[in-house]
Each structure stands twice: as structure tokens, then as C-alpha cells.
Amino acid sequence: TKVIFRDHAGETREVEAKNGTSVMEVAVANMIPGIDADCGGACACATCHVYVGDAWMGKLKAKEDMEDSMLDFAENVQDNSRLSCQILLSDDLDGIEITTPESQ
Ligand code: FES
């Protein structure tokens, strides 16, 4: 499954990753800047906050309460904000566009 990361400066990086991996894990494994993921994917730090491309928003699973409340701690939250450790790749998400924020 292809993931396209765009950083706040507009630079894009395209990576291939296995289904079932989280977008956060893919970012860390590919040294994508802008994702800290301090808690290692436990939905407890909000430093894996990203913006999801509009075309993929409707394909994601709805946020769990925990993700919603953790997002309150993220900076510059928008309608398309998600925690990348809670987005698991699947065929549906092929080509998903993820924009990383300037800071976490
Ligand atoms: Fe900590 Fe996602 S890695 S909330």
C-alpha cells in the first residue's frame, strides 16, 4: 500500500508499506520528519498528529474516544486531523496522502 507523506514545506515522499501497519510506524521506519510518536503508538501522546487528505477521510475508521481526547493535546488541530498511530493501512487506503504538521 502506497503512502504519500507531505511535510509542512510541501516536500513529498512516497513509500510502500504492508497492510496492517500504522501510518505512524511507516513514518518512523522511513524517517519521515514531523512525527515524533513519543508514546510508541499507544494513543497516549498526540505527537503523531497528522492531516489526512480529504479523499481518504471518509475511508478511515471513525475516531475512538481516546483518539479524540488525545487530539485535544495536539497543536493546530483541523477537521482532517488524526493520530497516525491509529490509522492502519489497508488496500482501501492505497495512495493515502498524509501531511505532517510543522511541529508537534
Ligand atoms: Fe503516541 Fe500516536 S504515537 S498517540
Task: List the main descriptive attributes of the protein structure presented here.
binds FE2/S2 (inorganic) cluster; 5-stranded mixed sheet; 104 residues
Description:
By secondary structure, the chain is α+β, with helices and mostly antiparallel strands. The protein has one domain: Beta-grasp domain (Ubiquitin-like (UB roll), Roll). It has helices spanning 23-29, 54-57, 65-71; strands at 2-6, 12-16, 49-52, 81-83, 96-99. The protein is globular and about 30 Å long. The N and C termini lie far apart (26 Å). The protein binds FE2/S2 (inorganic) cluster (FES). FE2/S2 (inorganic) cluster binds next to loops.
Q: How many strands, what sense, and barrel or not for the largest sheet? A: 5 strands, mixed
The outline comes out as globular
Mean pLDDT: 97
The low-confidence parts are none
> How many helix segments?
3
Count of discrete domains: 1
- Using the 3D structure, state the CATH architecture: Roll
* Distance between the ends: 26 Å
Give the tally of β-strands.
Answer: 5
Question: Compute the gyration radius: what is it?
Answer: 12 Å
Structural class by secondary-structure content: alpha+beta
Spatial strand arrangement across the major sheet:
2-1-5-3-4
Please state roughly what percent of the residues sit in beta strands, choosing from under 5%, 5-15%, 15-25%, 25-35%, 35-45% or over 45%.
15-25%
CATH domain class: Alpha Beta
The kinds of small molecule bound in this structure are: FE2/S2 (inorganic) cluster
Question: Might you state the CATH topology name?
Answer: Ubiquitin-like (UB roll)
CATH superfamily: Beta-grasp domain
Give the SSE order as H and E letters: EEHEHHEE
Assign a percent range to the helix content: 10-25%
InterPro entries: 2Fe-2S_ferredoxin-like_sf, 2Fe-2S_ferredoxin-type, Adrenodoxin-like, Adrenodoxin_Fe-S_BS, Beta-grasp_dom_sf
GO molecular function: 2 iron, 2 sulfur cluster binding; electron transfer activity; metal ion binding
Cofactor: [2Fe-2S] cluster
Organism: Algimonas arctica
